Each structure stands twice: as C-alpha cells, then as structure tokens.
Amino acid sequence: MTTTTTSPETVRRAWPLRLGAVAAATVVNALIGALAPLTGVSMVISMPGMEPGPVPVAAFAMWTAVFGLLGWGTLALAELVLRNRARVVWTTAAVVVLLLSFLPSMSVGGDAATEGVLLFTHVVAAAILIPVFWRSARTA
Predict the structure, then answer these.
(1) pTM for the whole thing?
(2) pLDDT in tens, 21-31
(3) What CA–CA distance (Å, rounded) separates 6 from 69?
C-alpha cells in the first residue's frame, strides 16, 4: 500500500483544481437554473412564511459556491486533523451531506418538475466537486 503525504507542492497543485471545481459547479448549476424555465419548469416554490415565487438564478450560483467552498474548507481541515484518512472520511461525509441535502429540496412546495430540477442541481454539484476533491486529497 502506498502512502502519500501532503507536501507544499501538493497543496499548490490542489487549490487550483478545487477552485476550478467550485467555479465549474457554480456556473453549471446557474445555467441549469436559468434554462429550466425555458423548458417549461415553473421553478416556483413556496417556503413557509413566504409568498410563492420563482427560485432566482443567483440562488443557484450562490448556494453552489457557498457549499462548494464549505466542502473545500472541510476537506482542508480534515487533511490537517486526519492526515491520510482525510480523503475517505471527507468523501463519506460528502455523500451523506448530498443525501441529506435532498430533504429541503423535496419540501419546498414546488411542483414535481421544480423539485426534480432542484435535486438534479445537487447531484450535478456533487458529481463535479466530489471526484475533484477526492483526487486532490491525501490518500490513505
């Protein structure tokens, strides 16, 4: 079994990949949010205590970037604390967070197509972020 450590060179190579993944996921999800209404999806949700309204495209970008950066920060912290186990622990946690993120999207009071688009954006973000973060993380 090969064990690698995170050297300063590895860190220098990891951050552009991770930043690129966050940017790519953000742009792709913003595009999905912008294109969904053009395909007939209403994108109208009704949150408790609020009037029903469409999900703004900026919300897709903002939340994808926020949670992408949180994932990156969590991985960086895990690499400091857990060293060579960081990749396995972080990836497991990321998959659990992905599954838990479906719950709010399924309870926003939108029609099935709207909720489907919201769930799809979570999967898209995970499909971009998790593999890039996994490849750039320490190995056990």
Answers:
(1) 0.87
(2) 999 999 999 99
(3) 20
